[in-house]
Amino acid sequence: MVILFIILIILASVILSLIVLVQNPKGGGLAGNIAGFSTQFMGVKQTTDVLEKGTWIFAAIIGVLCIVSSMFIPGSHTPRVQTPTEQTAPVNPQAPAGTNTGTTPAK
């Protein structure tokens, strides 16, 4: 699932980069070099409005995808509390003081 979000984020980032490269606030960007593109784009007279809306939409898509994808990253949640049945016994339990374990201490 995380790979799907990464692919969608990369795709939206590439599209956003292309939209930003096409527009220029002074009107002399790549959009001005394409004949007729700056005056009419699919029947819309104001290309700058379409490009600006596209910029905001794809920026919002990237933001939402980043926030939602963080929910699917393994290990990003709070740690799980162990129940008493999951706790393990100590490896080397020590005998209580004063009991004979059957071995003699090393000298």
Walk me through what this model shows:
This protein is mostly helical. Helix content is 45%, strand content 0%. The longest helix has 23 residues, at 47-69.
- Largest beta-sheet details: none
Which range best describes the helical content: under 10%, 10-25%, 25-40%, 40-55%, 55-70% or over 70%? Answer: 40-55%
Number of helices: 3
- Spans with pLDDT under 50 lasting ≥5 residues? none
Rg from Cα: 32 Å
% residues in beta strands: under 5%
Characterize the overall form: rod-shaped
In sequence order, what are the helices and strands, one letter per element?
HHH
Structural class: mainly alpha
- What is the mean predicted local confidence, pLDDT? 73
Span between N and C termini?
62 Å
User: How many beta strands in the DSSP annotation?
Assistant: 0
